[in-house]
């Protein structure tokens, strides 16, 4: 019986470079009925869509294991954190140094440091994540074994010259066995130009021409490089693993029997938990009782504790600093802020940067080209010029070892992963490498006004009755806005509450985008709308219009409360700019990025606010007008991108139209799931910080690409000229991969909030 079409996910341990992911992707894509294969190296995830008649999941797992990697199904978990990485199954080049076949028995218990991680998605011999010393791993053991054999061979050669050949041969063959085994597995999946194949050919060729000592040394250095690459890859994943450890394992749950300690992952919506001072908050929720400072830096990167009291939102993973809080859970563990940040960062690998896609295409012909050059190097000098075969075979073998593009392939994803991790740690979320690259090229930022450049909490400053008294005016306005979450509506409702005025009951309420709101009172429509809309409706006389213009000239947003033929009164509201808005605009200008405010507010209010911030503005804009403005701000060539920063709700069309759409909001669903990027701290200064991080990441990528290609180019030439030999070639290859990874890791310590 055929299975329904489904998407499956697995955790694959042992991937240490982009070549690893490409090998797995190619092998799985060749299986019948398997499509949409995604392999994320940093998050160790394999995702594939299986048709009804596709190969079974077991077949996919066997295909991956044949390549030398370990694989287990990814189970649903409360926090979808990356599983522990293994540097023992395989490494950069597909597990060539795994001394034996990878273990297939997987424990069903959770890692003690990853209570919410996927079950049995970890290796048992990972030095970085399991705390095991590198020399106890299989690859570490292989390094020690081949190293010992090398030392023994050198000792025999020193004591008994001429008798050290066989220990060198033994050291070479023992280390080469798993390499050859994986080369054969890759060959069966249609991948003949793998480093395993090149290593096998080079080592055996070296033995045949009598270079046993160098062959053994090459295998040893390759094994050392594998261990180093595994450690470096684990380090690159540590930032995401650290996020998964922020949520506490247990929570103090209020029950009918009292307070009980339960696993945090079992908390359900609307349950109530108690958080003692010094404890981490176990779930996203709303404070019911208590007043305390909460350190949200683990989630938002904000270093100053936020005062939380009844009605305030708190995030899982943040730390209660001062007094006990009672919190009602509002999100299940699998959907809390930390879980969604991890999921976003994990899945961001799928949105690959254009540079990364180009390098992938380049690497597909790069290695065959190197193999062709190596073959010509072996054949042409002896055949055409009568040169010695052994000399040119040796040089050709050295070229083969230069052919592995691991350093080049990992140059982009390693930098992107580090940038995403750094951004998440500072409350700057970027959805993938494509967004990072696009943000680096931004030359213009368009800001929404309310809630973005301003605090988003306006207050009613003036109540001007016209054909109703002040109480009636506020009651009707509050009735129209009752239930709305718009900042202006909330300000009107707050003012009515402060004045002990009950909103007039109405029905049929609806928003008028860019104009105001409407509701029915006894089937008669009533409006809270802009003066322009009221003027079009013919209810404002010259005196009322002049009053509205005077209020707007003071930087206040003015609305008219009216019904057909009658203006009941005016309400003026003011929303102060955020403290950091002017500084953010200054930093953007210093970076060569211009800023424009796009607002539906009237031109006089917009001019007053934009003037204090030192930026351009466009006022009176409907949502569709913002789309046009975004297109006009971008360059025709598309090279100078436009970033749109808004609240992620009213500005959704403009966010989608922009080169990079950024949603602001402290961990809201919209901020995390809308647009291309999100800012968690509601800080305008994080906009230049986001661009700064993206530019730093792109500089890091360019350094990595130059380093990888530069080393390859140098050693291609020196190998042909006979200046460098086999062991230098493999050292250059593995060394380049390690150097590129370490350079990418420098981004983990970068502070994007600091001006360069």
Q: Biggest sheet, strands in spatial order? A: 14-26-25-24-15-22-23
Low-confidence runs of at least 5 consecutive residues: 76-131
Mean pLDDT: 81
What is the number of beta strands?
A: 26
The gross shape turns out to be: elongated
Given helix and strand content, the structural type is alpha+beta
In whole angstroms, how far apart are the ends? 62 Å
User: What percentage of the residues does DSSP assign to strands (E)?
Assistant: 15-25%
Number of helices: 24
Percentage of residues in helical conformation? 40-55%
Radius of gyration: 32 Å
Major β-sheet annotation: 7 strands, mixed
Walk me through what this model shows.
Among the domains are: 250-334, Calcium-transporting ATPase, cytoplasmic transduction domain A (Distorted Sandwich); 352-440 and 696-750, no CATH class; 441-454 and 578-694, 3-Layer(aba) Sandwich (Rossmann fold); 459-574, 3-Layer(aba) Sandwich (Calcium-transporting ATPase, cytoplasmic domain N). The protein is elongated. By secondary structure, it is of the alpha+beta class. The strands form 5 sheets. A 7-stranded mixed sheet has the order 14-26-25-24-15-22-23, with helices on both faces. Strands 6-5-7-13-8-11 form a 6-stranded antiparallel sheet, with no helix packed on it. It has a 6-stranded antiparallel sheet with strand order 16-21-20-19-18-17. It is built from 24 helices and 26 strands. Helix 5 (195-208) runs antiparallel to helix 10, helix 9 runs antiparallel to helix 11 and helix 10 (389-402) packs antiparallel against helix 23 (686-720).
